[in-house]
Design brief:
The protein has 96 residues and is an all-alpha fold. It has four helices and no strands. The protein is 45% helix and 0% strand.
Protein backbone atom coordinates (compact mmCIF):
# COMPACT_ATOMS: atom_id res chain seq x y z
CA UNK A 1 0.00 0.00 0.00
CA UNK A 2 1.29 3.43 -0.95
CA UNK A 3 1.52 6.05 1.78
CA UNK A 4 -0.55 9.09 0.91
CA UNK A 5 1.22 12.44 1.04
CA UNK A 6 0.04 15.11 3.44
CA UNK A 7 1.96 17.87 1.59
CA UNK A 8 3.06 18.22 -2.03
CA UNK A 9 6.70 17.95 -0.94
CA UNK A 10 5.98 14.35 0.12
CA UNK A 11 4.54 13.28 -3.26
CA UNK A 12 6.70 10.75 -5.09
CA UNK A 13 4.24 8.99 -7.42
CA UNK A 14 0.74 9.58 -8.74
CA UNK A 15 -0.47 6.96 -6.27
CA UNK A 16 0.94 8.94 -3.34
CA UNK A 17 -1.43 11.85 -4.12
CA UNK A 18 -4.46 11.71 -1.82
CA UNK A 19 -7.47 10.13 -3.57
CA UNK A 20 -5.40 8.65 -6.41
CA UNK A 21 -5.27 4.88 -6.39
CA UNK A 22 -3.96 2.45 -8.99
CA UNK A 23 -6.97 2.79 -11.33
CA UNK A 24 -6.98 6.60 -11.32
CA UNK A 25 -3.21 6.66 -11.77
CA UNK A 26 -3.62 4.33 -14.75
CA UNK A 27 -6.24 6.67 -16.24
CA UNK A 28 -3.93 9.65 -15.81
CA UNK A 29 -1.04 7.80 -17.41
CA UNK A 30 -3.25 6.91 -20.40
CA UNK A 31 -3.61 10.67 -20.90
CA UNK A 32 0.14 11.24 -20.77
CA UNK A 33 0.17 12.48 -17.16
CA UNK A 34 2.97 10.30 -15.85
CA UNK A 35 4.22 12.29 -12.87
CA UNK A 36 2.63 14.29 -10.07
CA UNK A 37 4.35 17.44 -11.35
CA UNK A 38 2.44 17.05 -14.63
CA UNK A 39 -0.77 17.85 -12.72
CA UNK A 40 0.48 21.26 -11.61
CA UNK A 41 -1.44 23.97 -13.42
CA UNK A 42 -3.74 21.50 -15.20
CA UNK A 43 -7.48 22.05 -15.50
CA UNK A 44 -9.28 19.10 -13.86
CA UNK A 45 -12.34 19.65 -16.06
CA UNK A 46 -10.17 19.36 -19.19
CA UNK A 47 -8.50 16.21 -17.82
CA UNK A 48 -11.95 14.70 -17.24
CA UNK A 49 -13.08 15.62 -20.77
CA UNK A 50 -9.90 14.12 -22.20
CA UNK A 51 -10.49 10.87 -20.30
CA UNK A 52 -14.08 10.65 -21.52
CA UNK A 53 -12.92 11.19 -25.10
CA UNK A 54 -10.02 8.75 -24.74
CA UNK A 55 -12.18 5.96 -23.32
CA UNK A 56 -15.23 6.68 -25.47
CA UNK A 57 -17.56 6.72 -22.47
CA UNK A 58 -18.79 9.35 -20.04
CA UNK A 59 -16.91 8.69 -16.84
CA UNK A 60 -18.67 8.82 -13.50
CA UNK A 61 -18.71 12.43 -12.23
CA UNK A 62 -16.86 11.35 -9.08
CA UNK A 63 -13.83 10.89 -11.35
CA UNK A 64 -13.96 14.63 -11.99
CA UNK A 65 -14.22 15.27 -8.24
CA UNK A 66 -11.08 13.18 -7.81
CA UNK A 67 -9.23 15.13 -10.52
CA UNK A 68 -10.24 18.39 -8.82
CA UNK A 69 -8.94 17.07 -5.49
CA UNK A 70 -5.64 15.94 -7.04
CA UNK A 71 -4.95 19.12 -9.01
CA UNK A 72 -5.82 21.33 -6.05
CA UNK A 73 -3.57 19.29 -3.78
CA UNK A 74 -0.70 19.58 -6.26
CA UNK A 75 -1.35 23.35 -6.39
CA UNK A 76 -0.69 23.49 -2.65
CA UNK A 77 -4.15 23.10 -1.12
CA UNK A 78 -4.47 20.80 1.89
CA UNK A 79 -5.65 17.27 1.15
CA UNK A 80 -9.42 16.79 1.09
CA UNK A 81 -11.46 13.69 0.26
CA UNK A 82 -12.72 13.73 -3.33
CA UNK A 83 -16.34 14.27 -2.22
CA UNK A 84 -15.32 17.63 -0.74
CA UNK A 85 -15.44 18.90 -4.35
CA UNK A 86 -18.79 17.37 -5.36
CA UNK A 87 -20.83 20.51 -4.63
CA UNK A 88 -18.36 22.65 -6.59
CA UNK A 89 -18.55 20.30 -9.56
CA UNK A 90 -22.34 20.31 -9.48
CA UNK A 91 -22.42 24.11 -9.39
CA UNK A 92 -19.89 24.34 -12.19
CA UNK A 93 -21.31 21.82 -14.68
CA UNK A 94 -24.84 21.26 -13.34
CA UNK A 95 -24.59 17.46 -13.01
CA UNK A 96 -25.70 15.10 -10.31
Amino acid sequence: MVTKAKRTAEVTTLESIPNIGPAMARDLRQLGIATPAALVGRDPYAIYQDLCLHTGVRQDPCVLDTFIAATRFMAGDPPHPWWHYTAERKRTIKTS
